[in-house]
Amino acid sequence: MPAFPILLALCAAHSLNDLLQSVITAVYPMLKKDLHLDFAQIGIITLVYQISASIFQPVVGFAFDKRPFVNSLPMGMVCTTLGIAMFAYCNTLSGILAAVFLVGLGSATLHPEASRITSLAGRERRGFAQSIFQVGGNFGGSIGPLLVALIVAPHGRHYVLWFLVFSTLAFAVMRPIVKWYRGYLNDVKNHPQAHTKSLALPLSKRKTTFVICVIMVLIFSKYVYMASLSSYYTFYLMQKFGISVKMSQIFLFIFVVSTAAGTLVGGPIGDRYGRKLVIWVSILGTAPFSMLLPHVSLPLTAVLSFCAGFMLSSAFPAILLYAQELLPTKLGMISGLFFGFAFGIGGIASAVLGTFADTYGIEAIYNVCAYMPLLGIVACLLPNLKNRELPK
């Protein structure tokens, strides 16, 4: 059975980490005013953060695959805490860049390491475990901007320092995780045979490389369409249907709820019926909803956005577990690679789609991106790894 208390702690740690990460972009308007920045400088800040949070993830995962470190999660939270403290008080662009680099590095440490521990603690129900872990990130990332609006916006950027309360909570919830992981590593050291008997690669290196490329195409299709909804959905609703900002936020909340629900469902279904089936159905199955969405009324738009968010979000736990089963000795590296790639694609897609909307209009985004889920057809190239095992 899964180590359920540890999974809940990992979910909480992921939630608190992503809550702290979301502070950065939520404070951009205040930061721009305080430091008299232009949009190009805001773009540089985003670039530094994305490089730190995305590119370093597979590097961190690879390093700790070779030399596991029991305190990796608290170490990452130390980086995030220092970055948040600097972000609250730095009044120079160079200081802000250093701050967001540290915050990004904290995220680059937590995601591959926590995902590795989640897979180990999930045992024979790793899909269920990944769903629990990832829904924590969905929750934290969604409430972070709300807390910024309540705590920081009325008083000023220095009040970002209050978010160190959440980093303190993160250190607390990481204590049982560290204790469990230390026990696991000691057991690996004392009984190596029990943990290495199922670590053979399921495919040849050449085939594995090909399959990873196919998975990257699937992630690309998923996160380009997700970026269109997460970044521009409210603008689309206000322009096409003339609704208020407040009402558009309610519709965005419906979409956020759908992503959390899909994340929770995708992992357990993958445990029962196989990862490939979930990947195939969730991405390609989004296409009918995405293609209809630009052509329907406001109520049906809400329904279709919920369905699209639910379907797409169910894919990532299955994708991550499938990739881990491809490289069972590189859990951290493969987790970091796909988390980093997903974050990077999401960030780049948001920037590109913004330029596209300036040129062709906001509605054009959804007419073009509607076809992205059709790339899910490449899932037919994935071999069936349903019966493969990860380390025990």
Structure summary:
The protein has 392 residues and is mostly helical. The protein is 80% helix and 0% strand.
Distance between the amino and carboxyl termini: 12 Å
Counting copies of identical and different chains, the oligomeric state is single chain
- Nearest-integer average pLDDT: 86
Evaluate the radius of gyration: 21 Å
Largest sheet: none
What is the helical fraction, as a range of percent? over 70%
Q: Spans with pLDDT under 50 lasting ≥5 residues?
A: none
Shape designation = globular
Beta-strand segment tally: 0
Please state the structural category.
mainly alpha
Percent strand: under 5%
Order of helices and strands: HHHHHHHHHHHHHHHH
Our count of helices gives: 16
Question: What do you see in this structure?
Answer:
Helices cover 80% and strands 0% of the residues. It contains 16 helices and no strands.
Task: Write a concise keyword list for the protein shown above.
0% strand, single chain, mainly alpha, 392 residues
Protein topology:
Elements: H1 4-26, H2 28-35, H3 39-66, H4 72-89, H5 93-122, H6 126-152, H7 164-190, H8 192-196, H9 205-241, H10 245-273, H11 275-284, H12 287-292, H13 298-313, H14 315-326, H15 331-360, H16 362-369
